[in-house]
Amino acid sequence: MNEDGSGDVSVEEEAGAEAVEIQDTVALSSDHEGKDGEEPPGTSNRSPEEFTDAKHESLFSLETNFLEEQSVDNCSLKALQDPFLQHVNKELKEKEIQAVSTNPKNTHQLKWPILGQLVFSSKFQKLETFKPPKDIDLNSLHLQKPLASTWTKTNSQFLSGPPKSSSFFTPLQKELFLIMNSYQDLFYPERTALKNGEEIRHVYCLHVINHVLKANAQVLGNNSRRRSQKLGVGNDDDFRDQGLTRPKVLIVVPFREAALRVIQLFISLLEGDSKKKIIVSNKKRFQGEYGSDPDERPPNLKRPEDYEAVFVGNIDDHFRIGVAILQRSIRLYAPFYSSDILIASPLGLRTIIGGEGEKKRDFDFLSSIELLIIDQADIYLMQNWEHVLHLMNHVNLLPLDSHGVDFSRVRMWSLNNWSKYYRQTLLFGALQDAQINSVFNKYCINLQGQVAVRNVPMTGSISHVLVQLPHVFQRMEAENLASVIDARFNFFINKILPQYRDAVMSHTLIYVPSYFDFVRLRNYFKKEELNFTHICEYTQKSGVSRARHFFLQGEKQFMLLTERFHFYKRYTIKGIRNLIFYELPTYPHFYSEICDMLRATSRGEEATWTCTVLYSKYDAQRLAAVVGVERAAQMLQSKKSVHLFITGEK
């Protein structure tokens, strides 16, 4: 144990501990049925059979129910212009699928009034682009009943002014929904909890319910047609209307609070202002497990506004829940194979999917996902991005078991293992990031094409730094992306650190975004017997207090601080006089936040404050977010490797 109270745990030990935790919890599932279809408290060892529906089968089964005439607008379902039907009924040819792997990506840029710069792309032959109409009417959107009437009330908090023909959407919602309703993949990297998070959540929930109601109405309608049809008359191919498993929508959110809000929106969209309430099963249990007690939050806790907006309500990040929707009923905690919609965190999915060699694992329920929504993607960078990659590698695989499916009802493209070409992915995050971009580029191959919002930051977050401070940006060279990690470490210990070893350069904070870089630096500092302390997301509270005290008093010359600790705690570190950004922060506003910590204990030594930032040509996006796109371009192309900025000049 170190002086600051945190243990000497290696990367391998920490990774091993996480692997054990995953194995211990892989059998957990939110759809385990106990009394009255509810899950008993605590953990449970699951068998694959428990993923199937046992109770309430007939009530929520798509196979045994038929169309209620008043529950669906038959005309809109049959309309050839309906984007849902156009999408699911489109038949790809084998040669088109084969060509995808060799075709170059066609791209086209357009500027939309609200979303800004859009990049349309597709690997299929035809690239479809469009501009948003000035006005739209509800009929043109093909909303399923009762959404045309319930949406306006559900969305009213975002609408102001006199009613207009298109006033049921905000300008942002209108443009987003037009893309969603076209069934193209979408990447929107400007979703923030403070500014537009709820506005966006509302519009994607509308799209989800619209999709599920149409899909289920198609199945129920075909059930009715088959029942009334004379034996031996007609073609079975006329009734191909579903996937190999029932779950068709997966919504990935980071915290239980987000899942709570999504389901509340579902209820509102199905209920609206109707006097007849819809039936919501297991509602009390859901509110108990996903709600929060406002008294739990310390009253004197002061954090930035964006922190308060992200970490609101129940912030548990290990959960998953199945939702079945049938006519005027919603079943919460539906077993996964009897669910239409799955809502889960990356960790909640990881512990079901499991890993190679694990006996108890299941991912067949992901085989027929038609709509994947990944909301607040940037937060998963702070949680565990590997869980997101693990999920993406298991979506739309052929199931290992038939799960009682009627193969005569399964769409041919699903049987052909082409579901990934029909899956629409909606990716929302707060920033342009290389890892998020990579997921969108690699895993989103929808036949309708992709749309990415690509606005560049003209002014960077450095303009929000209030303290008077010289910022020295030092460019390090790396031959390729794979060598950046080692190049950064060697540059730091050989070129940067020697300047700070002198006792005069005390009170030096080193901000480290990557946990693995942090462990490497911590081990190096120990080996070199440097006078330092450190704080990471695993440091116990007592260790954090000691480390902050030692650093403030100058008893420790250096402090290593991880980005994840700052993300989750947002403490002000007092006593900083020299600041080193080992790498540019993931969130650009963290740059100004960390810099402004210098004024927390100003004792007249402002003239000696320093700030050093390491960057390489592979940090272009992060650099642009901090200094602005024009300056970033100059700094990356310049022959000079050192660039100076001064902030807070009077």
Automatic annotation (TrEMBL):
Domain UTP25 C-terminal: start-end pairs: 461-645
Region span, Disordered: 1-53
The keyword Nucleus is assigned to this record: yes
A GO term from the CC aspect: small-subunit processome
Keyword DNA repair: no
Positions with biased composition (Acidic residues): 1-16
Main location: nucleus
GO biological process assignments: maturation of SSU-rRNA from tricistronic rRNA transcript (SSU-rRNA, 5.8S rRNA, LSU-rRNA)
This protein's UniProt keywords: Developmental protein, Nucleus, Phosphoprotein
Gene3D superfamilies in the cross-refs: P-loop containing nucleotide triphosphate hydrolases (3.40.50.300)
Subcellular location: Nucleus, Nucleolus
Residue stretches making up the UTP25 NTP hydrolase-like domain: 183-451
Pfam families: Utp25_C, UTP25_NTPase-like
Example GO molecular function: U3 snoRNA binding
Subunit structure as annotated in this protein's UniProt entry: Interacts with CAPN3; the interaction is required for CAPN3 translocation to the nucleolus.
Similarity field: Belongs to the UTP25 family.
Function statement: Component of the ribosomal small subunit processome for the biogenesis of ribosomes, functions in pre-ribosomal RNA (pre-rRNA) processing. Essential for embryonic development in part through the regulation of p53 pathway. Controls the expansion growth of digestive organs and liver. Also involved in the sympathetic neuronal development. Mediates, with CAPN3, the proteasome-independent degradation of p53/TP53.
Name by which UniProt lists this protein: U3 small nucleolar RNA-associated protein 25 homolog
Lineage, opening ranks: Eukaryota, Metazoa, Chordata, Craniata, Vertebrata
